[in-house]
Structure formats: structure tokens, C-alpha cells
Write a structure and sequence with these properties.
heterodimer, A: alpha/beta, Ubiquitin-like (UB roll), DNA polymerase, domain 1, five-stranded mixed β-sheet, B: alpha+beta, Uridine Diphospho-n-acetylenolpyruvylglucosamine Reductase, domain 2, Uridine Diphospho-n-acetylenolpyruvylglucosamine Reductase, domain 3, 3 domains, five-stranded antiparallel β-sheet, four-stranded antiparallel β-sheet, 12 helices
């Protein structure tokens, strides 16, 4: 057991996870942030993707103790007021998902990628999301949603729903 | 919990890490990016007594160019190497291979040294290191030694690193003028390990090939150089016929594994196609580096 302090969705958190506890389990079990989904638990499906220090990472492939001192953003942190972030709203409007299991991972990967590549085209978006598996949709509706989010970020629509809050800018990266 | 019980050490310096390795030897696993080791733990294929987490050893991260070499610290994350101008300019073959590793989120954590120390024969970086004759710097209790790539890869997930040694740095020779490169692979899905991959580098001088390097991923338990094809290419002028003959020589004697992803015969044919394609691409972009 080690005491760790980190920031999750902007708030300071502490915990004493066992060394073998993954960041995903820590978020879900210790912090009750069950929006982060666990599919394969060995880094293949992408459902558990969260943003750590500005980069999308698989939270099942990182130990909780390794997140000490980091800034973590989960799906719960995209629109703290209970609304939807830009990417979430665009995916909602595009009917991107069916069952919803892959949703948090897809959204976090898309938010991280668009944060770094606001002008991404369809090919780049497809490549960026290629590590996230969806078993329902055939992906086209997901790509449509991310493209719509990119479009809306480039030229904010004054008629956009008032609850679409901008996604947080990626914090400083480690180098 | 998914992972087996394990003790955990987080050294802050290379010396501390080496002391811990000397203490625990084979009972320890070094945790770098964790993108291969944590799945092995999750599947309980690895059961180390202690994890030595080197993520806090800051001296192990960084890319620097000196003496015709680019030195990459073992903990340098793959996305950092991918974004490094030094890597793009001086080790174009590595720059070509990096984006093919896993996916964005994997490269956020995965490290150059971790992939090379894990030594999966189907992975991209081992083939690049073998093609370029990279040098592996390891530190143990009795000091540092430098191991050439030809001696680094000993077998499936096995290197010549001793249990009390830590991989600290990998040195790639900088590409000279007239060098063209290509990294190509056949995989079922984007981001998968290669069924067959090929790292290729050609140097042209006054229209003739002065240096040729070909290393396959996925054809054996270690990355494999195609020495016969390289010998054929040197001194010749690039042509479709030459590359066809090189593909034949590179794949004549190989005995690739057969599995769910491809039969031995399929791998052989794919390997020959990759030789033709890669040589053509490398010859085409050789002119861009003067």
C-alpha cells in the first residue's frame, strides 16, 4: 500500500491502492467513477481510455500508484455541470453509439486527439480511434460524430444547445 | 483484482534501480511503459515477485544526437520519439516505424527501451534496431557495457541483458546522405502486431546502392536480417528486376512460423512482396536526403 495524491477531474484525491491495482480499478472502485468502462482489462479494447497529463492512456495498463501527482480526466470530468461536452453533444446528435459500452473510451480518445489536432480530417480521426473497439455500430456513426465535433469546434454555432460546454484544454504534458 | 499480488519499488536513479535488480535478479520485472508487461500480468503469464518501476528515473528519458548517433534513453515514450525532430531528421527508419506501434493511447505510455527489452519478434522497433545495427547500453553492478543489436536479441522475448542489468539507452546510427528508408508491414487490423514486417534502408551514391539493410519482423523468434539479399543489392543500380531477385534471395531459405494469422507459405509470399515494395519506396525517397 502506498499513499498517493492526484487530481481527478480537477479535484485533489488521495488513496492507498495496492501496487497491483490498476488506475481503472482505482477510479471505479475507490473513487466511484464508474463512467470509465473495463472491457478486456489487458489493453486491447480501449473502453477504459482516460486522459492523464494531457494524453489518452489505457487506464487498465497503468497502475494507480503510477498516477500519483498526475492530472486525470475521466468521462465524468468533461462536463461537470451535468451537461454534455462538445464531443459528447456532437456524438449524441450523430447517433454515434448503440449499446454504450465503448462510449467513454471513444469519447476520451476523441477529446484527447481533437485537443491536439483540431483540424483533423476523417482519415486521421479513423486512425486515432483505431484502438477503440465497438461491437455495435460499424464505426461510421462514431466517425461522423467526431467529425461534427471538429467542425463545431472550428466554427462555434451560436445556435448550439446551451449545455454544450467546451471540452477542457489538455493540461501541460510531461516530456 | 486483475493483476497478481506483487511488491513494488520505484527507484529515482539508475544506480538505485540497478541495486534493486542486483538484489532481486530474476524475481524482478522492470516496469517501463507497461504496455506489454501489464497485459502479461493481467493474463498471469508473468508472476514477478517485485516490480521495479523506472518511470520516476528521469535520467532515462530523452533524445540526443552526438558523434553520428542518436541516443534514445530507455524510458523515452514512443510518442515523444515520434514527435522528436532529431528522430525524424536523423533516424528516418525509426520515424517510419513508430506510428505503426499499437495505437495512440499505447504510444502515450509505451517506451522505446521497453519495446526493445521486451523483444517481441513481431514488434516494429526490434526490426529497426536490427536493420540499423543499433547499440544497446546496459548498466549493471559492475558497470556499463554496450551490446550490438546482432547479439541483443537471443530468442522469443529474450535478450542478452543479464538479470542484474538495466537497459539505459539505445544508440541508432544517423542516416547519411542518399539514404532512403521504408517500414512496411502486413497486419490484419491497424495497430496489430505484424504478421510480417520489414525494415528497409538503402543508401545510394552516384546512382548505385552503397549500403542495403533489410530486417524482418514476425518471421522467427528474433528479428532477422536478409544478408544474402543485402549482398546482392550493394554495388548495383536500383531496378525492378534487381528488387525481384532480392525478394527471392531474402525469402528463399526462410522457414516462417504458421499460426492462426497466416500460414508459413502466406508469410513467405507476404515477405517477398514487402521486400519489393520496401526497396522501391526506399530507392524513391533516397534522393530526398542529400
Amino acid at each position: 500500500m502506498a499513499d498517493i495524491t492526484l487530481r481527478v477531474n480537477g479535484a485533489a484525491c488521495t488513496g492507498s491502492p495496492e501496487a497491483r491495482k490498476t488506475l481503472a480499478d482505482f477510479l471505479r472502485d475507490d473513487l466511484n467513477l464508474t463512467g470509465t468502462h473495463l472491457g478486456c482489462e489487458h489493453g486491447v479494447c480501449g473502453a477504459c481510455t482516460v486522459i492523464v497529463d494531457g494524453r489518452a492512456v489505457r487506464s487498465c495498463l497503468m497502475l494507480a500508484v503510477q498516477a500519483a501527482g498526475s492530472e486525470v480526466t475521466t468521462i465524468e470530468g468533461l462536463a461537470p455541470d451535468g451537461g454534455l461536452g462538445t464531443v459528447q453533444q456532437a456524438m449524441w446528435d450523430s447517433h454515434s453509439f448503440q449499446c454504450g459500452f465503448c462510449t467513454p473510451g471513444m469519447v476520451m480518445q476523441a477529446v484527447a486527439f481533437l485537443g491536439d489536432h483540431p483540424d483533423a480530417d476523417e482519415r486521421q480521426i479513423r486512425e486515432a480511434l483505431s484502438g477503440n473497439i465497438c461491437r455495435c455500430t460499424g464505426y461510421q456513426s462514431i466517425i461522423d460524430g467526431v467529425l461534427l465535433a471538429a467542425e463545431r469546434s472550428a466554427s462555434p454555432d451560436p445556435a448550439a444547445p446551451p449545455n454544450a460546454s467546451p471540452d477542457p484544454a489538455p493540461p501541460n504534458r510531461e516530456h | 483484482m486483475k493483476l497478481p499480488p506483487v511488491d513494488y519499488e520505484a527507484p529515482r536513479t539508475v544506480s538505485e534501480a540497478v541495486e534493486l535488480l542486483a538484489e532481486h535478479e530474476d524475481d524482478a520485472s522492470v516496469l517501463a511503459g507497461g504496455q506489454s508487461l501489464i497485459p502479461l500480468l493481467a493474463l498471469r503469464l508473468a508472476r514477478p515477485a517485485v516490480l521495479i518501476d523506472i518511470n520516476g528515473v528521469t535520467e532515462l528519458s530523452g533524445v540526443s544526437a552526438a558523434d553520428g548517433c542518436v541516443a534514445i534513453g530507455a524510458m523515452t515514450r514512443e510518442y515523444v520519439a515520434e514527435e522528436s525532430g532529431t528522430v525524424t531528421d536523423d533516424v528516418p527508419l525509426l520515424a517510419a516505424a513508430l506510428p505503426l506501434i499499437g495505437h495512440e493511447a499505447i504510444r502515450s505510455r509505451g517506451t522505446v527501451g521497453g519495446s526493445l527489452a521486451h523483444a517481441d519478434p513481431a514488434a516494429e522497433l526490434p526490426a529497426v534496431a536490427r536493420a540499423l545495427d543499433a547499440e544497446f547500453v546496459v548498466r549493471g553492478p559492475s558497470g556499463e557495457r554496450v551490446i550490438p543489436a546482432a547479439e541483443w536479441f537471443e530468442g522469443y522475448l529474450t535478450t542478452s541483458r543479464r538479470p542484474d542489468e538495466l537497459l539505459t539507452e539505445v544508440r541508432f546510427p544517423a542516416a547519411g546522405p542518399g539514404t532512403g528508408v521504408s517500414f512496411q508491414e502486413v497486419a490484419r487490423r491497424h495497430g496489430d502486431f505484424a504478421i510480417v514486417g520489414l525494415a528497409a534502408s538503402l543508401t545510394l551514391s552516384e546512382g548505385a546502392i552503397s549500403d542495403a539493410r533489410l530486417a524482418f519482423a514476425g518471421l522467427s523468434d528474433v528479428p532477422v536480417r536478409a544478408g544474402d539479399a543485402e549482398d546482392l543489392l550493394v554495388g548495383e543500380t536500383p531496378s525492378a528486376e534487381l528488387f525481384e531477385e532480392a525478394a527471392r534471395r531474402a525469402t528463399d531459405d526462410i522457414d516462417p512460423p504458421a499460426d492462426l494469422h497466416g500460414s508459413a507459405d502466406y508469410r513467405k509470399k507476404a515477405a517477398a512482396a514487402l521486400v519489393r515494395r520496401s526497396l522501391r519506396a526506399a530507392a524513391d525517397n533516397a534522393g530526398e536526403r542529400q
